[in-house]
Design a protein that fits this description.
Helices cover 21% and strands 32% of the residues. The protein has 196 residues and is of the alpha+beta class. Strands 3, 4, 5, 6, 7 and 8 form a six-stranded mixed β-sheet that branches. It has a four-stranded mixed β-sheet with strand order 1-10-9-2. It starts with a strand and ends in a 14-residue tail after the last strand. It is globular and about 65 Å long. The protein has helices at 52-58, 81-90, 116-129, 146-155; strands spanning 3-7, 17-21, 26-33, 36-40, 64-71, 97-106, 109-110, 136-138, 160-165, 173-182.
Length: 196
């Protein structure tokens, strides 16, 4: 199962954190085995058929399990969740992008025990050596102040950021080494009506 981020009010401070853009899309694992790709949801559902173009490009990567987010981009290059839902409902998925931000397995090796910096370094090599694809994109991280990265993300009208401990292994489920801070505040409310 994928590693999940805990919601926080502010991103963590300190040099041991890397900050990535929080993409507004569908979280998927790209699993490659013997040149065949499958895309699995957080709950393990096989959505390969829904993202056939991403799967076709992903099949060119070495065998492994890659963690990322499938996203539709608007005319300004920003993630557009409504556009993603529309693309899936109409079957027009050729312009969707898969942002790859972690590698769990690659080259026959379990990378999960390694620190994030090592996993991302291995992932960067995999992505840079793979055939060029406009659909598969490596996600860089920022090591500057989390508050500054969040402010920049909010200024660009993005959803927020994910902050990850650079020295932490990959651990399935929700823990303290991945946290998310959102730009837009929200509240959970119940809307009710009454009639006689």
């Amino acid at each position: 199962p994928p590693q999940l981020a805990k919601l926080v009010d502010r991103p963590p401070a300190g040099a041991n954190w890397g900050h990535e853009i929080k993409f507004d899309g569908y979280r998927l694992q790209l699993r490659i085995e013997d040149g065949k790709a499958r895309l699995l949801t957080r709950k393990g559902l096989d959505w390969t058929a829904k993202f056939k173009e991403i799967a076709a490009d992903g099949a060119k990567l070495p065998d492994g399990i890659y963690d990322g987010e499938a996203v539709a981009l608007d005319s300004h290059g920003r993630p557009d969740f409504a556009g993603l839902q529309d693309a899936l409902s109409t079957g027009r998925t050729s312009a969707l992008v898969f942002y790859v931000f972690d590698a769990l397995f690659a080259g026959g090796e379990d990378l999960r025990p390694l620190p994030l910096t090592d996993r991302k370094a291995r992932l960067h090599v995999v992505m840079s050596e793979a055939p060029a694809s406009p659909r598969l994109r490596y996600v860089e991280h920022f090591t500057t102040s989390g508050d500054a990265v969040l402010n920049s993300a909010c200024h660009m009208h993005l959803e927020g950021i994910i902050s990850k401990r650079l020295d932490a292994p990959y651990q399935s489920g929700r823990g303290d080494s991945w946290v998310k801070a959102k730009c837009r505040g929200g509240q959970e409310v119940v809307v009710a009506g009454y009639t006689t």
